Amino acid sequence: MLVPPDALVRKTARDGTPGARFAQLAGEHDALLHHVGARVEALVGEKDRWPAQELRRLIDCLQQEVLRQVEREEQVIFPAASPSEVVQLARDHVRLRVGAQALELAAAGEGSQSAEQLRAHARGLLLLLQRHLETERRVFTQRP
């Protein structure tokens, strides 16, 4: 299970090492990216049928891990960022939420997405998450 950002803040408050907080956050980001990536690869790898099970697993992962992490980051980590950094990170958060909602619509049979469009959307969402996590790392590892 991922360590929520507020737990990282509490840990840092006790040991007084902000660098350790962000190093741990980077490790958590790697684990999150790996977990989501595995779900995307399972969905993308299914070429013979509509990937209903794989899609459901990806959606569950996004809801339970990515979007919960996004909410905690907005509450705990955003206050440490500059206004311009917050705008960039928040924009990514909106895109992640919208991307997850689009997958939910596809899973419910709404819309006219083909299986190939669904795969492309899932890959795009993974790339967005990867870029977002890299941006967060860059922002927060520059902190004193």
In a nutshell, what does this entry contain?
By secondary structure, this protein is mainly α. It has 5 helices and no strands.
Elements, N to C (H/E):
HHHHH
Largest sheet: none
Task: Tell how many strands the DSSP assignment holds.
Answer: 0
Oligomer: single chain
Ends apart, CA distance between termini: 28 Å
- Strand percentage: under 5%
Mean pLDDT over all positions: 84
Structural class: mainly alpha
The Cα radius of gyration reads 16 Å
Indicate the low-confidence ranges by residue numbers: 1-14
Question: Can you tell me the overall shape?
Answer: elongated
Helix content: over 70%
How would you explain this protein's 3D organization?
The protein is mostly helical. It has one domain (5-141). Helix content is 81%, strand content 0%. The chain has helices at 5-15, 18-45, 52-76, 83-107, 115-141. The longest helix is centred in the N-terminal third of the chain and has 28 residues, at 18-45.
Task: Tell me the layout of helices and strands.
Elements: H1 5-15, H2 18-45, H3 52-76, H4 83-107, H5 115-141
What are the defining features of this structure?
144 residues; mainly alpha; disordered N terminus
